[in-house]
Amino acid sequence: MDVASNDYNSFAESYAAENENNLVNAHYERPAMLDLAGEVTGRHILDAGCGAGPLTAALRERGATVTGIDSSAAMLNLARQRLGENVSLELADLRDRLPFDDETFDDVVASLVLHYLQDWEPTLAELRRVLKPGGRLIVSVEHPVIAYMIQEPLPNYLAVNSYSFDWTFGGKTAHMTFWRRPLHAMTDAFTGAGFCISLISEPQPDPAARELFPDEFEAMATQPNFLFFVVKAVPPSPIAKP
Ligand SMILES: C[S@@+](CC[C@H](N)C(=O)[O-])C[C@H]1O[C@@H](n2cnc3c(N)ncnc32)[C@H](O)[C@@H]1O
To answer: What tens digit of pLDDT does each residue of 213-241 get?
Structure first.
């Protein structure tokens, strides 16, 4: 990966401000994640790549106990300002072993973070480890056809490939590198890590956003944007009795 890429510390405030009320995050991605999570009262949820914590906050408002992790200290500082001292937030990189015991969480939400990772295998193994048997991993990622067909045509849809671009938020430009995976590479990674796939979704933005974003809404409602998964940690099979 281009090491100069994806430095959220350098544009944390501008990214978080944009994410707060825009169409793509506030009226499309976040409502879709919350919809997939459903009733969460009393559940212990890990928000993996929590950023400034908007999903953490929304899940907490719905009665969950949420722990957030992120590899950017600046994003975590913003999450801390939003969430106060009573929420567990930890600096952690999803490429490393996670600082939690086995079977700690009922659910993991990973919102728009897995496409920063070249190799999903160690990360999914860790997320599987910290989930209780039967626990859910709820994921949103960049849709694999975006980079292939729309943003910057790539030569091979079926390969895992990276692509880089500049993102500008509130006047700050950041160099980003995403890892684009074809659908089969995502489903193979989930099942290979011990998850069964419950649902794959290409949801619609919140219809109420049409009035707020008359110029952007139609494209959001008709083109691929993100892909969403709910996968479940398969309980270990019972040991065969002699
Ligand atoms: C697009 S933002 C999404 C933030 C949040 N999930 C949301 O939806 O508002 C991606 C976040 O993933 C974090 N991130 C990127 N790579 C990471 C990694 N390897 N481990 C942990 N967090 C990572 C970034 O610091 C950033 O906060």
So the answer is: 999 999 999 999 999 999 999 987 766 55
> Which region, left, alpha or beta, applies to residue 233 given φ > 0 means left and ψ of -120 to 50 means alpha?
beta
Which residue(s) pair with 139 in the sheet? Answer: 110, 229
Write down the pLDDT at residue 3: 45
* Ligand 1: residue whose CA is nearest its atom 27: 51
Q: Atom 10 (ligand 1): residue with closest C-alpha? A: 113
- Residue 235, SS3 per DSSP: coil
Residue 140 has pLDDT above 80, yes or no: yes
CB 196 within 8 A of CB 231: yes
Pairing of strands 105-111, 131-142: parallel
Residues having CB closer than 6 A to ligand 1 are: 6, 8, 19, 49-51, 54-55, 70-72, 75, 93-95, 111-113, 116-117
Determine the Cα–Cα distance for residues 188 and 198; give it in Å rounded to an integer: 14
* Ligand 1, atom 14, residue with closest C-alpha: 49
Give residue-wise pLDDT tens across range 106-121: 999 999 999 999 999 9
Closest by alpha carbon to 37, among 67, 59, 20?
Answer: 59
Contact by Cβ (8 Å): 108, 138: yes
Tokens for 238?
């019972």
Distance of alpha carbon 55 from alpha carbon 65, whole angstroms: 12
Instruction: Find the radius of gyration of the CA atoms of the chain.
Output: 18
Q: pLDDT of 13-23, one tens digit each?
A: 999 999 999 99
